[in-house]
Amino acid sequence: MSSYKSGFATIIGRPNVGKSTLLNTILGQKIAIMSDKPQTTRNKIQGFFTTENAQIIFIDTPGIHKPKHKLGEFMVTVAERTLNEVDIVLYLVDASADFGGGEEFIINQLEKIDTPVFLVLNKIDLVSRDKLLTLISLYSGKYHFAEVIPISALANDNVDQLISVIEKYLPEGPQFYPADMITDQPERAIIAELIREKVLHLTREEIPHAVAVEVTEVKERERDLVYVGAIIYIERDSQKGIIIGKKGSMLKEIGKLAREDVENLLGSKIFLELWVKVQKDWRNRDVALRNFGYDK
Ligand code: GDP
Ligand code: K
Ligand code: MG
């Protein structure tokens, strides 16, 4: 019998290439929020994939990009620091997009590390075979990738193949986490992210990244009914109306969609109460960042 293997695989790539979608597909449960807006994932999320032979600890990072403000700086630091500490780097690219400066920037970062890097071409459901082959030869000319694996994270196509190749690269090691544990995220952090996801989806362009969610209370009030209280923070008074909507219609819709996801997560009926508060310029203040759990 071969011995148990375990190790870390970090998922990197530009915003919106599908990193969170891949993690969710692998884990079969929604822990990393997804959206078509860049920079949806703010802090590092670990997901544990466990089989009888191996345990892979996946790390979903915020997309690598040039920082514009303090929160941006924090996000880049987190992404780059992990590269040298893991066993495998999964470099995810959007196969339906053209090669650009953003990818060049990441490949330059990869030159600095010794960790094996897999080129994972995602969204193959959107591209022709010819386009895929052209992209593969383009990327392969720029860096020596340990493996090249095309997938569709959304359609769950070839993801099982990706996992079996990852297992080959893992060192021998113990099962660090129990088999039924799928993430290190505290329940409150996941709930906050689920609510933030709904805000991002529903408000579209109007509220780009000026939103943070703090879950203030999760408490079983009656048998099979959990009370969840949360504050949606925005930066400007003018954004308050957008979040609340006409006669409260937007906040109601945010609450309705979030409640479904949170009920799935907790496996129980919930009563969700949402408040909206203005906290000016929270993205540029370290204190505010710590409040929201983005600690360095
Ligand atoms: P991240 O910023 O890299 O974490 O990207 P997300 O996981 O949030 O995904 C960004 C967008 O791409 C979402 O709208 C996803 O539904 C979409 N997406 C992710 N993977 C795929 C895929 O394999 N095929 C297609 N067509 N869309 C995908
Ligand atoms: K995203
Ligand atoms: Mg993400």
UniProtKB/TrEMBL annotation:
Amino-acid positions noted as binding GTP in the UniProt annotation, renumbered to this chain: 13-20, 60-64, 122-125
Ranges for region G4: 122-125
Protein name according to UniProt: GTPase Era
Main location: cytoplasm
Gene: era
UniProt-annotated stretches for the region G5: 151-153
Keyword rRNA-binding: yes
Alphabetized InterPro entries for the sequence: G_ERA_dom (IPR030388), GTP-bd (IPR006073), GTPase_Era-like (IPR005662), KH_dom-like_a/b (IPR015946), KH_dom_type_2 (IPR004044), KH_sf_prok-type (IPR009019), P-loop_NTPase (IPR027417), Small_GTP-bd (IPR005225)
Keywords: Cell membrane, Cytoplasm, GTP-binding, Membrane, Nucleotide-binding, Ribosome biogenesis, RNA-binding, rRNA-binding
Organism superkingdom: Bacteria
GO BP terms, alphabetized: ribosomal small subunit assembly
Region (G1): 13-20
Subunit composition and interactions: Monomer.
Pfam families: KH_2, MMR_HSR1
NCBIfam families tied to this protein: era, PRK00089.1, small_GTP
Domain Era-type G, chain residue ranges per copy: 5-172
Similarity comment: family membership: Belongs to the TRAFAC class TrmE-Era-EngA-EngB-Septin-like GTPase superfamily. Era GTPase family.
Function description: An essential GTPase that binds both GDP and GTP, with rapid nucleotide exchange. Plays a role in 16S rRNA processing and 30S ribosomal subunit biogenesis and possibly also in cell cycle regulation and energy metabolism.
Lipid bilayer topology: Peripheral membrane protein
